Amino acid sequence: QVQMVESGGGLVQPGGSLRLSCVASGRTFSRYAMGWFRQAPGKEREFVASISRNGGTYYADSVKGRTTISRDNAKNTVYLQMNTLKPEDTATYYCAQSRDAVAGRLDGTWASWGQGTQVTVSS
After folding, report:
1. Cα dihedral sign for 58, 64, 65, 69?
2. DSSP state, residue 123
3. What is the rounded distance in angstroms from the CA atom of residue 80 to the CA atom of residue 119?
4. What one-character DSSP code corresponds to residue 29?
5. How do residues 23-63 score in pLDDT, each as one tens digit?
6. Residue 70, C-beta contacts closer than 8 angstroms, at least 6 positions apart
7. Which residue has the higher pLDDT, 105 or 24?
8. 120, 116, 42: which is closest to 87 by C-alpha?
């Protein structure tokens, strides 16, 4: 198991930007894919983006073109840059580590989760 801590959430106006960060403990960070998910009250958890151990990326259709996932293996950190934010982006955002190395939705492979950071998009 690893421990992960998300940060960077907050209140932002529609059209604004946020950069979320997730710092993971342990020595195996660079071996596995990392992902971002979000969950709004009353809704199921939703996949947002993932990045492979080598930097390949995969995005949900709802965020393509305005979202970038990246990682810095030397810092055990994964980032989610979100631009042109919309009210429907409001949710708690979680980072997760996969048991696989590739990018994708990877259903059933997400093993470790952070505590979440709240993103609220409102005027």
Report:
1. negative
2. -
3. 12
4. G
5. 999 888 999 999 999 999 999 999 999 999 999 999 999 99
6. 51, 55, 78, 79, 81
7. 24
8. 120
53-71 as b/e, with b when 16 or more CB fall inside 10 Å?
A: beeebbbbeebeeebbbeb
Beta strands 77-82; 18-24: pairing state: antiparallel
What is the distance between the alpha carbons of residues 63 and 47, in angstroms, rounded to a whole number? 10
Helical (H) or strand (E) element with 82:
strand 77-82
Q: How does pLDDT run across 77-100, given as a tens digit for each residue?
A: 999 999 999 999 999 999 999 998
Could you tell me how many helices (H) and strands (E) the chain has, helices first? 0, 11
